[in-house]
Amino acid sequence: MEVRHLRYALALAEHGHFGRAARAVGIAQPPLSKQIADLEREVGARLFDRTRQGVFPTAAGRAFLARARTALDEIAGAALDAGRAARGETGRLRLGFIASALLDPLPTVLHRFGRDRPDVRLELHEMGTSRSTAALVTGELDVAVTLGRPRGAGAEHLVSVPIGHDHLVAVVSTAHPYAGQPSVGVGQLRRQPLIVSSGADEPAVVAGLHALLGKDSEALSGATVARDIHTIIGLAASGVGVGLGPSRMLAAARPGVRFCEVAPRTALPDLVLSFGARDHSPVLAAFLDTVRRNCPDVGAALDRRSVPPG
């Protein structure tokens, strides 16, 4: 039994006449009559009564036609679902990210991806760079946003492109003596109580601070350790000290604080988007298209580094 047999039977039931049904399905009447007869033999029951008044479904035919309609609806639905999945309109995307990526550029990317792909299930996991790298390598994540390029075993199988550049800035309360300064120098920072990130998952930031202030810096060893950027800003606003963090902090500006450049300018690791080089899922492709549209200069880097299927 083939799909066309179901369509022929439904057409015959609708038109009640072999000639009209044959024209509706685009074949001649004799082949249609033969196909219906073959179908009845396969089913083992007469599906239609042929009368001078027309062709009418039997009780067996009515039961068969009800299932046939359902089957054709399911087939059409399967084709529709397959097309949507192939276009990345359904499915799942598992994204790992560092917290500061929620300042920029993830909010715009996630908003637009969710708007354009409402039936894709987004699974979002905040995690540090080392954890998300391991999860990418083992297949627990589809894409990750990390501070710096993923390193370690399996990282060579990932495509990684920078999606944001950062440098160190300072944040102080509006009552702090540095609040009116466009920049603060290393000597000034060494004389102030500092507020820094724990760096447990981002050792490159800690390394940058040590390079700036000195490996054995008393200011760093006595610094207040904060969990994330928002805590650094909040503590600075409270007058606890001078907060140090990435320039993305400017997107989280709040009343009661001022930001200052740090001199000399100290580059921090790039914000990096990574995914499996051999992952060609349509959902990932749709997400990368959204990143291309919303992150300037990323599109060319993605095109250069993406590995073609094969």
From TrEMBL:
Assigned keywords, A-Z: DNA-binding, Transcription, Transcription regulation
InterPro entries xrefs: LysR_HTH_N, LysR_subst-bd, WH-like_DNA-bd_sf, WH_DNA-bd_sf
Keyword Transcription regulation: yes
Sequence ranges assigned to domain HTH lysR-type in this UniProt record: 1-58
Protein family membership: Belongs to the LysR transcriptional regulatory family.
Protein name: LysR family transcriptional regulator
Organism annotation: Streptomyces olivaceus
